């Protein structure tokens, strides 16, 4: 498809802490990117060892209230992407889809795929582009996610010849945020901040964060008919006990 697009083609570790006597430190290794997509697990840091307090201390130390370590998610932690549902058009658009893409001032995952179907007034069937990552969590902790997103029209005319694209951001299959290029990620809005929180229930040690892009049929069959584009960044995560 001949379309003019704007396109230019982060593991963390724990730091050893010393409290009076000693503590342990651990380090993590990041997994390398592979394709096709594989769910990647970000290794969780080990808890600090309990400090030994000298018997001669005149006053006992007050119990410290520590905020659980927050995981850091990089683009390579996500790996690649998979396609489900209705067909997609092959070629350059699919090659441009993926992580490490820059689009309209952001770098992250760009969905620049067009549906292989077309229909003048249809919003189904949908094709899906999916990328996900497994993130360690601590039960009882509140995790706040901040993701940036931006939408763009599917051709240089920026007109009604294009059809929307949408995205759902899910945790363990539950939608935490949803938007399309006709509302929350409309191209005229520019870069948007997407914020939501998740509380890990008792017994939970990990979650799966998924970006699920939804692509309806194109509005026309010729080269002007196209689906819009969306880019999402990796999440910045903050934690509270």
What is the first-to-last residue Cα distance?
50 Å
Over the alpha carbons, how many angstroms does the gyration radius reach?
22 Å
- How is the main sheet built? 6 strands, antiparallel
H/E series:
HEHEEEEEEEEEEEE
The amount of beta strand, in percent, is 25-35%
Number of helices: 2
Low-pLDDT stretches: 1-64
Class of secondary structure makeup: mainly beta
Morphology call? elongated
* Count of strand segments: 13
User: Helix content range of the residues, please?
Assistant: under 10%
- Multimeric state of these chains? single chain
Q: What do the pLDDT scores average to?
A: 78
Topology:
Blueprint: H1 75-78, E1 82-85, H2 92-96, E2 98-103, E3 106-111, E4 127-136, E5 142-152, E6 162-163, E7 166-171, E8 174-180, E9 192-199, E10 206-215, E11 226-227, E12 229-232, E13 236-240
Parallel strand pairs: 6-11
Antiparallel strand pairs: 1-4, 2-3, 3-12, 4-10, 5-9, 5-12, 5-13, 7-8, 7-10
What labels would you give this structure?
six-stranded antiparallel beta sheet; 241 residues; mainly beta; 13 strands
